[in-house]
Amino acid sequence: MNHAYIVDAIRTPIGSFTGSLAPVRADDLAAHVIRALMARQPDLDPTAIDDVILGCANQAGEDNRNVARMAGLLAGLPVSVPGETVNRLCASGMSAVIGAARAIAANNGEIFIAGGVEHMTRGPWVISKTSTPYGRDAQMFDSSFGWRFVNPLMKEKFGTDAMGETAENLLDASAISREDQDRFALWSQQKAAAAQASGRLAKEIAPVPIPNARATLSNLPKTNS
Description:
Blueprint: H1 26-40, E1 51-55, H2 67-74, E2 83-86, H3 92-105, E3 112-116, E4 125-127, E5 140-142, H4 152-158, H5 163-174, H6 178-198, E6 208-209, E7 216-217
Parallel strand pairs: 1-2, 1-3
Antiparallel strand pairs: 4-5, 6-7
């Protein structure tokens, strides 16, 4: 069995909801990272890349129609390099990396670009078709987060709690105290602040040019975009 190794890792800054990265499309963000990655590996022949695998949970707007393939093409990779988009919701990017490692282990390739892309701010409003011609039962949802077009049987059997609601359920099920939560949150933020102060995070961030902005972003608060 072959062994898989991470040769390099790079990402964009992480912005806040409706924040500084809002003007940039999700597929452009993914393409930007791939271009930056290739620039850091000038000796890599792009035709040797076996696949681009990206996780993406939404896929309802500009990230639709296989965003991994679109990002690869937008980044300038040869058309011979394929792309695959996977969805395991919040674990989508991790699943993409695991999928690439499995392919290498199974001797189905040697060089993969794997990661994830998401842009909650640019998630579109989505609307259903009516059940009858000229019907008035169309449903509209904000696809930025959470369920839409829920199957009634799914809701009845398993519920459709969002992430925040699920966190509350876990508090009750596991008796997690607020003190423990605050302690963990502080510990996480302290590690992030230390990494940022040491310059460690700068090594993995590809600054993103923002349309109509005077400067590029190189570091942002650690919240979802």
